[in-house]
Structure formats: C-alpha cells, structure tokens
Design goal:
alpha+beta; four-stranded mixed sheet; 4 helices; RNase H type-1 domain-containing protein; nucleic acid binding
C-alpha cells in the first residue's frame, strides 16, 4: 500500500490497487512558498501580536473553533459599538482549528479590502498571526491572507 501512495503522491501517477482507484488530483499537494520580492513583504507593519485588555470599539474580531465533530469560523465588524456585519462558515470536521482561525482572518482581510477601509483585525490565534507574518509559508490559506495584506497584488510565478 505504501508503494501505491508513493507512486500517486510523489510520481504524480494515478494507480489502482485491489479494486480501489487512487487519483493524483484527489491528494492535496503542498503549495510552494510564494515568490515575493522581500522588499514588498512589509507585513511587520501590518501584523502585530499584542495583548490588549481593552481592544478598540471599532474593529473586526475573528474566531475559529473545533469542537468534537464540528469546525467553524467567523468574524464580525464593530463600528460605534454596533455590529454592522458578520460572516461565518461551517467547515469539514477534518479541518483544524488553525485552518479555521486562518480562514476567518483571511476573510476579514478580504472584507475590509472590498470596502476599502483600513481597520484593526483582532484574533486570539497567535499561531495563525505568526504564520501570516512569516515570509516562507507553503500553506495556501496563509499565502492568500499574505497576498490580501500586501499593498498591491503580486503574481506568483
């Protein structure tokens, strides 16, 4: 069985074994790190990890959770102490809390970009924030969040 998985995963070839089909496209392939000019990767000014007992009244708050067989994430937008927008998603039970937290942050960034506003996004996920601020990530969700934070879209080649 291991040789079948190696053939499909590493050699990118479909294979049949004992009546089961293993198709290359069914296996998740890791993305290579984004090729971004280091001069354009100034996320230090955009991602910070701080603890504040009194977060601002106008901001976006994100959260992700994984409980038993449920995984989900959400964000809400608060302005003048009133919730003006909310977004939530139910994910597959196989998704991790890291994936949920990162997706919530990414969607919050995309929402703020679509409205053309500059705001603070608050998350309780230090691992997701660290991953987004790390230059060499091969995680597709992290890469999408990084792209959304950059001032201009950059084409990866």
């Amino acid at each position: 069985m291991e040789s079948i998985l190696v053939r499909v995963g590493r050699f990118r070839r479909d294979c049949n074994w004992e009546g089961s089909s293993f198709l290359y496209q069914d296996f998740q392939q890791p993305n290579p790190p984004l090729i971004i000019n280091l001069a354009n990767f100034d996320l230090e000014d955009r991602v910070s990890i701080v603890s504040d007992p009194h977060p601002p009244a106008e901001a976006i708050y994100t959260d992700g959770l994984h409980l038993e067989c449920e995984t989900g994430c959400a964000f809400c937008v608060i302005q003048n102490n009133v919730q003006i927008h909310k977004w939530k998603a139910k994910l597959s039970p196989q998704n991790t809390v890291f994936q949920a937290e990162t997706l919530a942050i990414k969607e919050a960034i995309n929402w703020a970009n679509s409205k053309g506003i500059s705001t603070s996004i608050w998350s309780d996920s230090e691992p997701a924030l660290r991953a987004i601020s790390f230059f060499k990530s091969s995680n597709p969700l992290v890469q999408e969040a990084q792209q959304a934070l950059l001032p201009k879209p950059i084409n990866a080649t």
